[in-house]
């Protein structure tokens, strides 16, 4: 469903995982980010694009390779496709597609065409890399931590920042890459906020925000969780570790396993050579 709309952007929120998909309109292009997730939701996004695109270039950007963010790729294969080098060189592309198949099979979901991993026309390999069509300039920043292949996208002319699986209003950090990388990406987020006049920030899950103070609040919320978990792991404070795991507003076996993975990642990072 549409949760935000103005002349420059439309934000869709899926009924599943509160995944956010963004469509941005400029003079030269229509830019789609992470089209997701159920077939009728992806079709709604595509229908909006087809209705408004006229003779503009169609660009689709994937913020990272998690299956819930790439599931809509087949409906946008005709677009200029942009992703990070980490996505382009991902070692487990087949596994990502299989996760889509498994999900769809479990919930009896039919999709038109084959499930596929994105193939890219433009690969982002460094911070500040740009892609420009006409007067529309997109600026990209690598965003590892949640995954190793994350990507921030900024459209400075519109004050729009699409952050992928960071800066959610409710979702705790999932450290599927490394906690140090996640913390560095949060520092990068602060730099983006300080460098651009951001009027709209869209995370990967939850709700967008038009408030810069809210963006900073979300950065601090993520930092607070990570630093508290690091301290608890170092001190072997099992009660604190358990307490932090209960902070997610949608407790489930999935969020429990994500928290346990966070603990595992941090234990590995802080482990001393003589520790058992």
UniProtKB/TrEMBL annotation:
Zinc as UniProt keyword: yes
Domain spans labelled Metallo-beta-lactamase: 18-205
Presence of the UniProt keyword Flavoprotein in the record: no
InterPro entries per UniProt: MBL_Glyoxalase_II, Metallo-B-lactamas, RibonucZ/Hydroxyglut_hydro
Pfam families cross-referenced by the UniProt entry: Lactamase_B (PF00753)
A single MF term (Gene Ontology): hydrolase activity
Residues annotated as signal peptide: none
SUPFAM superfamilies: Metallo-hydrolase/oxidoreductase
Keywords from the UniProt entry: Hydrolase, Metal-binding, Zinc
Cofactor: Zn(2+)
PANTHER family assigned to the protein according to its UniProt record, in alphabetical order: HYDROXYACYLGLUTATHIONE HYDROLASE GLOC
Name this protein carries in UniProt: Hydrolase glyoxylase
Species: Cytobacillus horneckiae
